[in-house]
Write a structure and sequence with these properties.
disordered N terminus; 5-stranded parallel beta sheet; 165 residues; 45% helix; 6 helices; alpha/beta
Length: 165
């Protein structure tokens, strides 16, 4: 999804096409909030040059935040964060024999000065919500949409509560 007259503001990157069922949830959430984004498959280990170029060129192309998901100890989010000053949100994925523990630790354990915001295992939706909050700091209409979405969530909980006999 691209904004009229402009390019994407968020990048959604995954290490392999097998990550798409989880990571497309980030794109769907961003689309639902009206945030222009792009989706890519890049690997820190199998396509390091392309991944490095993506990270280094992202800000110049207009991206303002990157969501990166990978399983095992692939460390895609950290690799990207090492090559850009944009905020990077890591989504550790569970598709490994270690049930995502390896991905979680490799995403969490970043050296000082190279932060990666990390969400829950398979937490692509929350990664998109966090990206939206970051973007809303400089986008008042998006901030309004986020407030409206939060109010709708609260209404849904109140309705569920009221439906219990």
């Amino acid at each position: 999804m691209a904004a009229s007259g402009g390019g994407p503001l968020a990048g959604v990157v995954m290490g392999s096409l097998s990550d798409l069922p989880v990571m497309e949830q980030a794109g769907q959430t961003l689309s639902g909030l009206g945030i222009a984004h792009e989706t890519r498959v890049l690997s820190a280990h199998r396509t390091p040059e392309a991944t490095l170029a993506y990270a280094r060129e992202a800000e110049g192309r207009g991206l303002r935040v990157i969501i990166a998901g990978a399983g095992m100890a692939a460390h895609l989010a950290g690799f990207i964060a090492s090559s850009t000053l944009l905020p990077v949100i890591g989504v550790p994925l569970t598709g490994s024999p270690l049930a995502g523990a390896d991905a979680l630790l490799s995403t969490l354990q970043m050296p000082t000065g190279v932060p990666v915001a990390t969400v829950a295992l398979n937490g692509a939706k929350n990664a998109a919500w966090l990206a939206a909050r970051i973007l809303a700091l400089s986008d008042p209409p998006l901030a309004v949409r986020l407030r409206e979405a939060r109010e709708e969530m609260a209404r849904a909980v109140a309705e569920a509560d009221a439906s219990i006999p």
